[in-house]
Amino acid sequence: MNQHRPKLWTKDFIIVSSVNFFLTLIFYLLMVTIAVFAVDYYTATTSQAGLVTGIFIIGTLIGRLYIGRAIDNIGRKKTLFIGLIFFTLTTLLYFLNIGIAFLLITRFIHGIALGVASTATGTIAAQIIPAARKGEGIGYFSMSTTLATAVGPFIGLLMMQKVSFQMIFAFCLVIGIIALFTSFFLYVPAIETSDVNKQGFQISSFIEPKAVPIAFITLAIAFGYSGVLSFINFYAIEVDLVKAASFFFLIYSAAVLVSRPFTGRLMDIKGANYVIYPAFIFFAAGMFVLSTANRSFTLLLAGALIGLGFGNMQSCTQAVAVKLTPAHRMGLATSTFFIFLDAGLGFGPYLLGFIIPITGYGRLYGLMAVFVLLSAVLYYFLHGKKESMQKRVLDTSASA
């Protein structure tokens, strides 16, 4: 039976996953170091340092909005080249210490470049993964992002203790060049683009309508997870678990890596609901455990549960967005997914920052556990119910 399964781990799949890993590694490495750089080199205020970090995500959103529409007119591989060249050249600007305003511009442009390049990698990956293994393949592809979210901050924090910021930027530049060089060996099959050239301003030219319902779910869960990304270190200081917190994202990534081979295949065989509903429960449980953390074990258990929950939901919702969309609009579907994901991760900390003075960190995570469960109800109405009905129809026709 396995002999008839289409091959997933092709040369091109490995290359595009590797390029995505390199891009995300640089993104997360700079996310944990650039605010300190702004304070040390430009005596930036706390709000300015936060803006230096956050303006990158605004740039990424703008890059995705544009390229989601244009990618199939430009060409998917050509878009990747443009994005990688743009991304690598922008890294050189970090070496110019002209002022805080120039650093903000650099971060904004760098974000646009990432939006272009990472939308291209996601679209190419979705295209070259066999249809019968779409859930499994996107699960493995998104593992490149998951690994980078753990490795990037780890390298960044380590380098800040050992080397200068100029060396950190040089490291990012080398990684960018490696990503660009690797992409030259990537083959992307041509596709039909018969009705992607519509004229005039239309929302559907920037957003894929069929992907919007599942993208809203992605926005909701990313909003919940943003509280973990942004405030886990502050919470760890408050509960005196700083050492354990340094391993939080490693445990998170390990949980994703262990579970991803099973959840991807389960989604392809049984459907998204069989993965996403349990993932909501794991995610909510992880948030609740985090809210009560008073020992290292509890904190790390929360990391594992959140990895099983959010880590798997992220790849499954991306797979759903792609499966619902015609091949020639796959770029828009990928762009739509990431726009909503970035919006949740980017604006979540800002909004949650108004709640924390009232609730504190622990109670915030307790509230986020409830929010995640409510998001499961939203998922049922936006996609889960429809998927269940389609699955029953398929099962009935298969047994007839």
TrEMBL record:
Q: Name one GO molecular function term.
A: transmembrane transporter activity
Q: What keywords would UniProt list here?
A: Membrane, Transmembrane, Transmembrane helix, Transport
Q: Which InterPro entries match?
A: MFS, MFS_dom, MFS_Exporter, MFS_trans_sf, Sugar_transporter_CS
**What membrane topology is annotated for this entry?**
Multi-pass membrane protein
One matching Pfam family, short form? MFS_1
* Compartments (UniProt record): Cell membrane
Location (main, coarse): membrane
Q: Which Gene3D superfamilies match?
A: MFS general substrate transporter like domains
Q: Which GO terms describe its cellular component?
A: plasma membrane
Q: Which domain of life is it from?
A: Bacteria
In what residue span(s) does the Major facilitator superfamily (MFS) profile domain sit?
12-387
Stated name of the protein: Multidrug MFS transporter
Q: Supply the source organism for this entry.
A: Sporosarcina globispora
Source organism phylogeny: Bacteria, Bacillati, Bacillota, Bacilli, Bacillales
